[in-house]
Write a structure and sequence with these properties.
The protein is of the alpha+beta class. The chain folds into four domains: about 20-75, no CATH class; about 80-190, Band 7 domain (Tetrahydropterin Synthase, Chain A, 2-Layer Sandwich); about 190-255; about 260-305, no CATH class. It is built from seven helices and nine strands. The protein has helices at about 5-25, 110-115, 120-135, 155-175, 190-260, 265-280, 295-305, and strands at about 30, 35-40, 45-50, 60, 70-75, 80, 85-90, 95-105, 175-185. Strands 6, 7, 8 and 9 form a four-stranded antiparallel sheet that branches. A hairpin with a 2-residue loop joins strand 2 (about 35-40) and strand 3. Helix 5 (about 190-260) packs across helix 6 (about 265-280).
Length: about 300
């Protein structure tokens, strides 16, 4: 029985296609955005990719195994917390503290050579953070860490200095990028706590005295301004009153001059004014017309009879 040439050719092509696909699967790999990848050729690193770096993420190629192989690491930020340990301040006080730190792999090839695993990296970084935490806190007195005066606190400076030192050494030695270091928790031994509370009490008392003295000074200043304003107001009022009295006296003098020339007219007008005042509210008054100023009514009757 003769074989079909077309069938044989199809089988060969299919086999070649399967082989090519197999070779492609062995040579192709994907770098995810959360990956750090080191490419090894005969167990020696030749290339690195960081998924967060532009152009590194996506489909990449290598020679098929066993010539090339890859090691993957997590490229995301890792966070850890140091132990709650005692640290000595510049002025000799024991301070309990812990620091949190965030880091990620910056140079995968160096990381693989010097560190190798995430767990070992955190152990190494924990030692670095503790070392520089002690060094930084040891350069500051307790008042820069615990104080009722916000201007005395130096947390930001201490954290920046700690980060600068840890970041530099971690990058140089391990290919690790430290993104932050934060003083997470602080505590004081009982003896130190009593001393701190006593000092805080004295600071509060000193602050209360200063506020009281300032309040007295402000009160004296306000009182002085009020007294000065009162004196100016009284002086202005007295001046205006004197002017009004002078104007009134001048006008009164004019009227008195007229009355002096005609005394009968003056007496008549005064009686008339008194009469109007006594009768303006419809009062009932029983008096004789001989009493002043009602004698004016008698005079009016006499004038009518005439």
């Amino acid at each position: 029985m003769k074989s079909n040439p077309l069938f044989s050719a199809g089988v060969i092509l299919l086999a070649l296609a399967v082989l090519a696909l197999f070779v492609i699967l062995l040579a192709a790999y994907t770098v995810r955005a959360t990956d750090c990848v080191v490419v090894l050729r005969w167990e020696k690193p030749i290339r690195e990719f960081v998924g967060t770096k532009e152009g590194d993420a996506g489909l990449q190629w290598k020679l098929p195994w066993p010539i090339d192989k890859i090691d993957r690491y997590d490229a995301r930020t890792h966070v850890f917390l140091t132990k709650f340990e005692e640290t000595l301040t510049q002025d000799g006080h024991n301070l309990m503290g812990t620091v949190s730190a965030g880091w990620r792999i910056g140079e995968p090839m160096k990381f693989r050579e010097k560190v190798g695993t995430i767990e070992k990296a955190q152990d190494l970084l924990s030692g670095l953070v503790r070392t520089y935490k002690n060094a930084v806190i040891g350069k500051h007195p307790l008042s820069h860490i615990v104080s009722v005066d916000p201007d005395m606190l130096r947390f930001d400076e201490m954290e920046k200095e700690m980060l600068s030192n840890v970041e530099r050494e971690a990058q140089e030695r391990y290919g690790i990028r430290v993104e932050f270091t934060k003083i997470k928790q602080l505590g004081l031994p009982k003896k130190v706590t009593e001393k701190v509370f006593e000092r805080m009490k004295k600071e509060r008392e000193r602050l209360a005295v200063a506020i009281t003295e300032k309040g007295k000074a402000d009160a004296d200043e306000i009182k002085a301004r009020a007294d000065a304003y009162k004196e100016r107001a009284l002086s202005d009022a007295n001046g205006k009153a004197k002017k009004l009295r002078g104007d009134g006296d001048a006008k009164a003098a004019e009227h008195y001059a007229v009355f002096a020339r005609n005394e009968d007219l003056a007496i008549f007008l005064r009686k008339l004014e008194a009469l109007e005042n006594s009768l303006e509210k419809r009062a009932t008054v029983i008096l004789t017309t001989e009493d002043e100023p009602y004698d004016l009514l008698q005079q009016e009757q006499k004038d009518k009879k005439r």
